[in-house]
Amino acid sequence: MKTPSAFIIGAAKKQDEVGSLDQVLLLESQLLQRGITPKHLVIEPLEADWHSPEKEHHFRSGCAPIEALAEAKRLIENGEAAVVISGEDHIRTGYSRENRLSKMAVYGQSYPLTQAYTDLARAFSDNHTITEQQFKEFSSALFENYQISFRNALSDTFTPELLPDLRWHKPITDLFRGVDCANPMVDFSGRLLLTRADIAEQLGVDKSQWLKVKAVGLSRLDGDGREFLTDISRYEHLQQAYQQACSEANIDFVQLFKGGDALLETYTCYPVVPMAFLLVSGLVEVLEDIPDFLAEHSITITGGMNLAKAAWNNPALNALVLMHHRLCDGPEKLGLIHGNGGLGYRQGVAIVERVDV
């Protein structure tokens, strides 16, 4: 008997009161009317204890949505009819400033994220013998690339006021400006519905709105934080996740992407992560090629976490929702979404494809 494929047939998000989850909730209610109760996978919010064990069907970190997608794919391939992936976090209105900052200090008050990012960037730069000045130049090129994607994603609704003001362009560490790091100060909720093909047909969802989960590659190191900086900075585990996904999907992503046939959403929490992705994926041969590559290719469809935001553990969920809309409504057929967990010890790469009607 043929293993069933997993299809994303509903994708919706709401951010700071803009948008609605109704499209997915309606499909879920239609499932319940047919006596089908979907399995529910949850992306945990900031308020969840970062250091506690993850409960079954709960996922935590920036890689969580990709890990949840891998689990949804596995469940459907093993006969589950439908799976819902949901994430909700009211970062802007749900926490006091003190509580929010305390919860975000996942490596302790004495080792803030900005310091961890800087230490990781230095280790990565040393690995590839690039200077501090080169790192900053590549970071600037990345932010310019995100801005173009952000404008394009919003198109008619874009206004300059949506861009970060001048204070965000000032350095906050030796290597980073405010605009270089993610700023998740939003209220976000997102929802994906995945089903088998027969269930999607029962629900009457037009095939043009089916997105096949072709492959998900996952890799993680034994631990996170300061003690694992050297291992993280090599990004061999990211390369492993990427190659696993491309092999399972049986694609040459570099060729498809450079040919304009695929979309990409790299994880942009801070510049070293997309730099590493571009390198280990083979999109660039050496880091020095990054500015020229970015002048030709958009590496996010959203504008990245820095501009499109999306709360705490949800950026890759936001990307999956928007990738569904872009692929179902646009000329490209294939999309790759990257997730980075913690300081980078968890890596995930998902490849999705529009179904030919």
UniProtKB/TrEMBL annotation:
This is Acetyl-CoA acetyltransferase. One of its GO terms (molecular function) is acyltransferase activity. Gene3D superfamilies: 3.40.47.10.
